[in-house]
């Protein structure tokens, strides 16, 4: 892990990261995932609500307004899957995605896991900075994939 961002650097500019789901702006998250993401287009709102309710979520805020989001599906002991990671356009290119990933992998409930995984089309460079690598023995992994209609 080679990149660590200073929390104070962002806090001094009005940013914070919270795992308090009551702060999340569901409409903004839904609109981004359904309308702009390549991985969750067409997700029904009720499925996203259920997913958020049953995940460890991280909201990035600028002066109380949602600037980014990520969620982790985990048993908090052996396995975690990082997904739905995004920073909204007006807040990009200032290091928030690095700060968000750093915060996630440093979270106390995500320490000592045997496996922490994610899937990405184009952000390999970001995640490699924090120790993520391509899956070894990919031939052992299987899935049931049912795209949203």
Describe the structure.
- The chain has about 150 residues and is an alpha+beta fold.
- It has a single domain (about 5-140), classed as Aminopeptidase.
- It has helices at about 5-10, 25-35, 45-55, 95-105, 125-130, and strands spanning about 15-20, 55-60, 65-75, 80-85, 115-120.
- A five-stranded mixed β-sheet has the order 1-2-3-4-5, sandwiched between helices.
- A hairpin with a 4-residue loop joins strand 3 (about 65-75) and strand 4 (about 80-85).
- The chain is globular and about 45 Å long.
- About 20% of the residues are buried.
- The mean pLDDT is about 95.
Defining traits:
five-stranded mixed β-sheet, 5 strands, globular, Aminopeptidase, alpha+beta, 149 residues
Helix content, binned percent: 25-40%
What proportion strand? 15-25%
CA-based gyration radius? 15 Å
Which consecutive residue ranges, at least 5 long each, have pLDDT under 50?
none
CATH class: Alpha Beta
Average of pLDDT: 93
Strand tally is 5
- How many domains comprise the coordinates? 1
Task: Predict the CATH topology.
Answer: Aminopeptidase
Largest beta sheet: strand ordering: 1-2-3-4-5
Largest sheet: 5 strands, mixed
What's the tally of helices?
Answer: 5
Distance separating the two termini = 38 Å
Element order: H for helix, E for strand: HEHHEEEHEH
Form type: globular
Assigned CATH architecture = 3-Layer(aba) Sandwich
Structural category: alpha+beta
GO molecular function: acyltransferase activity, transferring groups other than amino-acyl groups
Organism: Mucilaginibacter conchicola
Protein name: N-acetyltransferase
Pfam families: Acetyltransf_1 (PF00583)
């Amino acid at each position: 892990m080679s990149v660590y961002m200073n929390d104070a650097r962002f806090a001094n500019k009005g940013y914070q990261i919270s795992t308090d789901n009551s702060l999340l702006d569901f409409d903004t998250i839904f609109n981004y995932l359904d309308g702009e993401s390549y991985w969750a287009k067409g997700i029904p709102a009720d499925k996203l609500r259920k997913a958020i309710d049953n995940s460890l979520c991280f909201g990035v805020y600028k002066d109380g307004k949602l600037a980014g989001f990520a969620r982790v599906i985990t048993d908090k002991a052996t396995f975690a899957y990082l997904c739905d990671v995004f920073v909204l356009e007006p807040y990009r290119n200032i290091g928030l995605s690095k700060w968000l990933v750093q915060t996630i992998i440093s979270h106390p409930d995500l320490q000592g896991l045997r496996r922490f995984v994610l899937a990405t089309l184009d952000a390999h460079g970001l995640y490699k900075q924090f120790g993520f690598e391509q899956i070894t023995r990919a031939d052992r992994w299987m899935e049931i994939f049912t795209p949203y209609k």
